[in-house]
């Protein structure tokens, strides 16, 4: 890599949505310069006006030409396309990192980057239902878990730089294999999203007969369905690039619901209570 | 009924857990006297010490002897038992109301109360994961929806008294048939509970191979699984007394999840996106 420490780096953040603009904002002052890149003139202007980046442009080539670190902060399938584009124009000695929510396909694609360009996958476990540059917040990454998925070809120096970057925004790096990452987030994040969506859909079905359901929904429904308000385009990319793990979770989950239903049907209170007590204790110990 | 206005009433709250003690606390000063009744000496002492009631006792018979309104604030199946007991000792001219989370079985049972005792079902849509007298809070009912399910035999006077009581704790009364109530809460409350439990159970299964899942779970998992921390005994009563409606919801829900899975399997992005967009818009408009 061209530079050895974060403070010397010019960092290009490509994609000035919630994640990119928040990261840029948290990085400002901790490196030589933060350059924002986005196709949207509004995002570029807003990021500059609000000081989320030191400078910003709608031109990818101009934005990355002096970059030591390139951060791909778009939805997953946009990242897959960006890796191809960047292969041709990333500066020799630079490092590419991404913030995508699934890692297997992205790290596989990163293997194709030129030898002179380092690469490491990244996935911060933070977010909001709101998306876009207007929702950006320098504190978004504070105390968050931040997965890093190195490739076989990732140098120690590049991985150290990625860790330093994560720590500089007060997040906690955790190095993990891409496939293991994708299985874990399928369980703790992608499955919950689909569960929330299924719940809103059921309520919608009940509402055909009884619109009072929307008034009857209180805090329990609100929290259980919260993730259904996530950005659909972002979620579609996640679902389509983590299909196998998500399908596995959906299958196992349906089996669990089926167990609940069979116990209820049979009025088998003993086994139902035992299940729910185990779950209750586990949940109490979690948060 | 013996008295015509709430301010003249002696109100006995039977069951000094979260719901009963919070209601007692909110009613103090708005009626002649609030008498708390609980089998637990600790609950009785705590409710008195913290001023949740004017007076309290572990003796049901003594507690209700001067009561104009009796509020049954225990888990559902305990309420079913209490209705039998109270049939024999409720003062002539008094009114019985309950706070149980399911209404069909309770209102059916209330039909057996003596003719000289009025009855109306009640269900406030508020709560906490924490239960017990220590979690009580006079503001718990503030702005909450409060279902009232009158019986055919409920007099207008008794229903007015129930409405006045609900409004005096700043909740919003909504009069509804017991069966319609049970179907609505199966969708917005009992199904979400089981979904949360199923999610924690899946995470537990993944944890056999990979305990890091507990660190990976962030705010999305936390909110979607929150209801799994609800009191199991209370929930068992709810599940067993609203079985048919809950089984219907579980079946419809499983079908929804199956639709998601089939779309994912077939890589049918169009129909999946359409589903998720409809859900997203609905959820955005809700809260």
What does this molecule look like?
The structure is a homodimer of 287-residue chains. The longest helix of chain A has 32 residues, at 178-209. The first copy, chain A, has twelve helices and eight strands. The first copy, chain A, is 52% helix and 13% strand. An eight-stranded mixed beta sheet of chain A has the order 3-2-1-4-5-6-7-8, sandwiched between helices. Chain A is α/β, with parallel strands linked by helices and 287 residues long. Chain A has helices spanning 18-27, 41-49, 60-64, 76-89, 104-110, 156-168, 178-209, 213-216, 219-224, 232-241, 243-265, 269-284, and strands spanning 10-14, 33-37, 55-57, 69-72, 95-98, 118-124, 145-150, 172-175. In chain A, helix 4 runs parallel beside helix 5 and helix 7 (178-209) crosses helix 11 (243-265). In chain A, helix 1 links the parallel strand 1 and strand 2. Chains A and B meet through helix 7, helix 8, helix 9, helix 10 and helix 11 of A and helix 7, helix 8, helix 9, helix 10 and helix 11 of B.
């Amino acid at each position: 890599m061209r530079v050895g420490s974060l403070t010397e780096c010019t960092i290009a953040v490509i994609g000035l949505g919630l994640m990119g603009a928040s990261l840029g904002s948290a990085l400002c002052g901790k490196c030589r310069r933060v350059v924002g890149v986005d196709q949207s003139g509004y995002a570029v202007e807003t990021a500059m006006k609000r000081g989320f980046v030191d400078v910003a442009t709608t031109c990818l080539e101009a934005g990355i030409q002096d970059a030591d670190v390139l951060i791909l902060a778009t939805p997953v399938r946009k990242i897959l396309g960006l890796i191809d584009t960047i292969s041709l124009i990333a500066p020799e000695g630079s490092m590419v990192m991404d913030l995508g929510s699934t890692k297997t396909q992205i790290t596989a694609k990163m293997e194709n980057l030129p030898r002179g360009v380092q690469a490491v996958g990244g996935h911060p476990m933070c977010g909001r239902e709101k998306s876009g540059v207007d929702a950006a917040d320098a504190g978004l990454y504070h105390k968050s878990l931040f997965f890093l998925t190195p490739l076989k070809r990732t140098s120690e120096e590049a991985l150290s730089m990625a860790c330093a970057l994560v720590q500089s925004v007060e997040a906690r790096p955790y190095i993990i294999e891409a496939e293991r990452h994708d299985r874990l987030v399928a369980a703790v994040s992608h499955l919950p999203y689909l569960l929330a969506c299924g719940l809103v859909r059921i309520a919608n079905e009940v509402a055909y007969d009884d619109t009072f359901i929307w008034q009857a929904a209180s805090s329990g429904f609100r929290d259980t369905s919260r993730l259904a308000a996530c950005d659909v385009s972002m979620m579609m990319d996640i679902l389509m690039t983590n299909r196998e793990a998500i399908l596995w979770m959906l299958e196992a989950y349906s089996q669990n619901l089926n167990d609940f239903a069979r116990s209820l049907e049979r009025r088998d209170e003993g086994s139902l209570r035992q299940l729910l007590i185990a779950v209750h204790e586990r949940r109490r110990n979690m948060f």
